[in-house]
Protein 1
Amino acid sequence: MKASKNDLLEYCKGYVSNRMSRFAAAISAAQSDANKETKSSAGDKHETGRAMAQLETENNSKHLAEAKKLNAVLSQIDPEKKNSSIELGALVKTNLGNYFMAISAGKTHLLGDEVYLISPASPIGQHFLGKKKGDTISFNRQTIAIQEVQ
């Protein structure tokens, strides 16, 4: 595998940073929109606009807080650590694909490798936790053989 744990960690950090930037920009835009809404003879129309902008701000604030939690999880990973069992920060090679135990961010292609970015809290992450090279797990009616843990 060409992609290292460090490469994958940097990819995850970029993914989370991008999300944080998008949510912060959306919050700023919604707050700006709410501030532009002023009372007029139309009254209710502007109150509705303010309320919708407030809801959008709250929704994006929740997403931003979640992204900050993901960032905190990533800061706990030491890419130089050699893992013998699967835990946060482990890179796992199996007969069905490669997995990086960090955050749930789907499948990515990095340096020619296809890697699933999974969280320890995800269903497959829960099955993998604590397993070692040579172990197998059953997930979605498939047997997954763990070939390597880094």
Note: The CA atoms of residues 42 and 86 lie 61 Å apart.
Protein 2
Amino acid sequence: LVIKGGTIVTPLSTRSAEIGIDGGRIAAIGENLSGREEIDASGMLVLPGAIDAHTHMALPVAGTRSSDDFHTGTIAAAAGGVTTIVDFTVGRRETTIPAEIESRLKDARPAVVDYAFHAEVIGWGPGRDEEFSAAIELGVVSFKFYTAYESSGRRTPPHIMREAFAAIGRLGGTALVHAEDEGLIESIAARLTPEDLSRMATLAVARPPLCEEAAISQVSRIARETCCPVHIVHVSSALGLSAVRDAKRSGIDLTAETCPQYLLLTRAVYDREDGYLFSAVPPLRDEADRSALWEGLRMRDIDLIATDHCPFTREQKAWRGSFLELPYGLPGVETLLPLVYSEGVGRGILGLTDLPRLLSEAPAQIYGLYPRKGALEPGSDADIVIFDPDFEWRISAEGLHMKTDFSPYEGMEVTGKVLATVSRGDVIYRDGEMNAEPGRGEYLRAEPRLQGRD
């Protein structure tokens, strides 16, 4: 297969060249290449496949499951130019991290794009370091912790987190953190009345930006003490970003992500009649936070954009009288690339080369998948997106592949659309048609950092 006529976009440059593909990998980049099949990409952008490094397919939550499974969710991913997802195991106190990896691998068998995993750490205690080393042997090198959710047993206390981080750092792994301060959340919750709980807008008040800033600051100190690389997921606020920036400037090995919902939406949607459909944690913030996050991307304080894709149907999110009764999560895997292009590059906030850096290279590097993934280079997997930068369309849940009847971006006018998606040399999506058999996706064994930390 040869892709001709397009503009190849990498984190370092844009150039007109052809890409030759053989055996599922990029064989050559140059001129006058020939192959049995050719794709004319004239006038189009040729991008590395996007990596959505934060998805939750078929996630058990609030008595239900997120509505996309690994088949439907990866079909949606392919239609949106996402050729790799990194999902999560489902942590349980009564089992081990390796057992949960094996269980999740079974769930993922129907995937049509490639996938890797983060391991959710629940109920870990000292003396169980072997679970981390066993997980790394299975190809999982990133481990997720919570500083909140004490009532559901997901929170890891700071003293336990410190021991876990030390073990992970020694093994060359990375710790991921959902950063919201439990003490602040509980102190606010104690003052909320039933009337407060019955208003969707209270969600933003119940988990304010201060919670995020405090948790990131504490986690940063633990990362410094243990020499463990740490990644902060779904940074949502200017205060949270400030804590990230402070940690980086003090030399802590810390990276961060944000999500389209925090870049494009504000808590004003909670005042809508259907505001409950936008339930997510961290909650949506103010316009000033939204602007600060774009600036954080521009200044490279935020390393990547992922979606936290966790969709539910309108029925699953039906209002039950309190925001505490709602499942938290929003759909996003299919709209990631077009939204970041349209609202970031299209508005001049980001440069064109920022697109592959934020959506492909950075997640691959942080999570041990580079250079097999995240690069347009000879020897890398031929995960390629042909993208029309001028195509204008309107987002509608009805016209998307995600298994939900709701999109938080419903009605938004977008410029830029995926025309074709190539996964390991296979054209799995082209001109609105899917051509991917269930199970063609491969499990990716991530690589630990070359040298752990003593």
Note: The domain at 50-366 is CATH 3.20.20.140 (TIM Barrel).
